[in-house]
Model the fold of this input.
Amino acid sequence: MTFKKAPFGWGLTLAATLVLQACGGGGSSDTAANDPSAQPSNIAHAQGVVYDATTGQPLSGVTITSGDTVQTSDAQGHFDLTQKTGNSLDVKASLSGYGDGQAHIEISASNPNAHVVISLNKVAVNQALNVSTGGSVTVPNSTAQVTLTADSVVDAATGAATTGQVNISIAQIDPASQTSAMPGSYKADNGQSIESFGAIQVHLTDAASGKPLQLAAGKTATIRIPVKTRSLTVPATIPLYYFKESTGLWVQEGSATLKHDAKLGDYYEGTVSHFSTWNADKPIEQSVHVTGCVRNADNSIPTQPISVITDGLDYSGAAFASVDANGQFDIMLKRNGRATLTASSSEISTSPLTLEASATDTKLANCLILNANALPVKPVFLLQPMAAGMLVEGQPGMLLAGAQGAGLVRYQWFRDGAALPGQTWPMLQIAQLTAADAGAKYTVVATNQGGSTTSNTLVLTLTSATAQAQQAAFYALLDAVMEPLNLSAAASATVDIDLGQMLAPAQVCSSGQISTLTLDGRKVVGGEPITPDATHQLNATFSSCTPVDGTQFSSTNGVLSGSIAASVFYGSNGNFTDTAVLTNLGDANTKLQSSGVFKSSQTFNGNLVANAWAPQAGATVTHVTVDGNHTLTYTGGSMVSSVNTDNQSSNASYQNLSFTIDKVDYVLTGQMSTPILLTDELKLQSGGKTIARMYFDSTNRLPRVEIIGTVPAF
Done:
């Protein structure tokens, strides 16, 4: 069997803004009924505070609503309420000029107390459109946008058609700067945790009467959400979630596609059928538990409501828990994710504790100690200013920084000592880099209630377009070299590993077809058992086959054509060995075709999967281009990889993998790991000299590519 896994990868970590006590910000206009399973049975006591998400200042005069209890925040933004509720408590916050905020807290009879912090996002634009013509409303200096079609709006309460002018207000939510700016608790209605890549809150009202409006049944609108994330990996497509106000949870509906604006950066674009808070989120597939205890400075158990938060450092997400009557807590953390852990009330906090990546549950060795002096501690930079990728002259650029500190952390960027107006986020986007930017000195100041801290100075170094093209050529060559491994996975895609039986052709191609599919000369219909501990002959011919999601080779995301003849040994222990002969098997998306003999073996040992792959001399990969075909011919060597499915780590070792392009010999040697290791290095050599290498930059904790010679275009 060919193991369908990217042959190399990077375990990137990006420390970014730390915001403690994140619980809300931005509301919803959905009108779904309340969850009948959550009947009032507990008396909840919630103390909290409301902040401005941009300035970090407490907000007074905010209307606080929970069930039938209504209060107003005081001059310090504080509120204190008691409410009869079920197994969760939802606290809503409303203030003119801001998007609505909402916190969702899980409670129980044994743990009815909660500390709540809600951050409200200012409305960035409020603009009128004619209902009969529709149109677009865009936030100034942002990609955030809403586009309505003509006559698509109705009265939200009655569903009756409306005419005249509709006011559209948009509030932007930046979870990269503050996870507290997001409503709810980063939890979907299916119980799964989510991490955000940006969100907007949209509210429609009748310009004349002020009545809430909504999209008519069967109508859709297009939205754009600016990408705001603490992760360096941004998906090309992403699920969309809307905030369901009645449950305080997120509901997945539709998806969005990544797009780019040359001046304003990346954004996600998708269509929606109603308006509320829309969030571009990726589900967190696995989480781990962090358990521990909280104590006062005198080691006594706190009696006031205390909340605990894990706030992602290399992902934009958070989890919340309350401390019980015994001072204990149990909170979730993204598996292999880095975060800070903090406990606090309205008046006191613990110092932030950094949690390093872990694949297993963690029990803290020591209790978190509430410290009256914890809140005033000024920020500490966990990520000094750095470039997010290569800075290329003539192209947009982005700088990143991240500080940890109690309370809300605010930023101000400086260039050559002068403050940059409006640049108050952890990410600084530069619309277009010019020669004048080379040598420019950037710093950023992080500020919270405890004071301000100035970062180290970043001196910009620009890369020429020629150097960037060479680096792109290196990445393209690595993809091309491993293309047969990806394509030959089709040889085993028709084998259901768990059940040991063949899949029907219709279960392999969602469109197009497998014109022939035989096992040991017999036509495959589907469900045929495979005799274990024996060698079988598998033949398949693909014609414009778009793989079905879930098959072993679906991650090529391509359209396959060509044929495979494979000799496959299927062991009763789940191990595979195959020799696949590819005949012009290609992917229409990558424009790459492979031919020749490729041997692979895969073994399973508990959570460890090991794969060995070796193309036979003379096997080829051809890149079909409009200006002619380029062919890579293998001459020797192999690649050995291993994947640990328990901790999601992997390693790929290139053992003198040799090939020629245009009669020039090349060799790949070295190894790459996920997460990346200090010792990782991959070299491309020609004529006995290294012409390019990939390695780990220990200073910035990022992969780097160094071009020493000339990388062939392929």
In short: Residues 380-461 form a domain with the Immunoglobulin-like fold (CATH 2.60.40.10). The first helix runs from residue 465 to 488.
